Amino acid sequence: MKELLLHCGSRYVGREEIAMVPTPSGTASWHPVPHYEIIKMVSNAVESRGWTIANEQYGLGRDGAKLFGVMRLGNSSHPDWSRAIGLRNSHDMSLAVGLAAGVSVFCCDNLSFGSTVVIKRRHTSGIDLMSLVSGALDTLVEQFFTLELEADNLKLYDVTPDVARIATVQAAELGAIPSCDILEVLNEFEHPRHEEFAAPSRWSFLNAFTEVSKKYSPARADTCQRKLTRLFGLDGQPSILWDGQAIDV
Q: Of the N and C termini of the chain, which has fewer Cβ atoms inside 10 Å?
């Protein structure tokens, strides 16, 4: 399953081509960061922590103005999945530098960003991107363990059709998805397009939301993913859906 999804107007590229993308001149308040520099900073920070990059996917959009990427790390101790880092950047002021991480990252050129966004900073004159990346990856050490533990827990429990219907409506009421997508989420859960989500587990239920969110606008996708993290308890706190902890999302 692709973790980087591109649409018309965007294309998959390698590091060599990304290195050739020119960086526009900045202004007094906006300092664009070269795409390749973002990749190198993340790569160096990953390797300095003893992690390895097993594979990577990159894409450019809007004639090189936008960068999207996913790095799959190769030294996870978990038998069912590995750790991944998603990244994005822009040269046209359309989005901030972003870094996400998880056991299943989804990055799309419509700016859907699956998993927990660790950093998202605008290209301002005072930005210290290297410190942000380094600090973010330090935070990821704990977050990876939390995500893996909670994802494991989600795979242990099945979701019945009745519970799925109630939980999907609740997710819509709490703003994770618009109400018009309730039936689409339920259909994806009952008839998943990916074989690995055939079992009706809480993990597969989460994937149904993630699949539907791939069509959302940038702002809508970010809101959806943040709320799903809270709803499913991927942040290590009690899940709203399963534990009834209706705290702020």
A: N
- E strands, 51-189, are 53-61, 66-73, 84-90, 97-102, 107-108, 116-121
Does position 15 have pLDDT exceeding 60, yes or no?
Answer: yes
Which H or E element spans position 175? Answer: none
Q: Which residues contact 156 (CB under 8 A, 6 or more apart)?
A: 201, 202
Name the pLDDT band for 21 (thresholds 50, 70, 90): very high
| Domain final residue, candidates 104, 119, 144 | 144
For the chain, helix (H) and strand (E) counts, in that order, are 8, 8
Query: Looking at residue 119, what is its pLDDT?
Result: 61
Ordered alpha helix ranges (H), 7-76: 15-19, 35-48
Q: Are residues 131 and 188 in the same domain?
A: no
Helix (H) / strand (E) element for 105: namely: none
Locate 214 and state its tokens. Answer: 């791939």
Helix axes 202-213, 182-190, angle to 10 degrees: 130
Domain boundary among 111, 144, 177: 144
Per-residue pLDDT reduced to its tens digit, 135-145: 777 777 777 77
Task: Give residue 136's identity as a one-letter amino acid code.
Answer: A
Cα dist from 82 to 86, 150, 169, whole Å: 13, 14, 31
Report yes or no: 175 and 223 within 8 Å, Cβ to Cβ.
Answer: yes
In single-letter form, the type of residue at position 190 comes to E
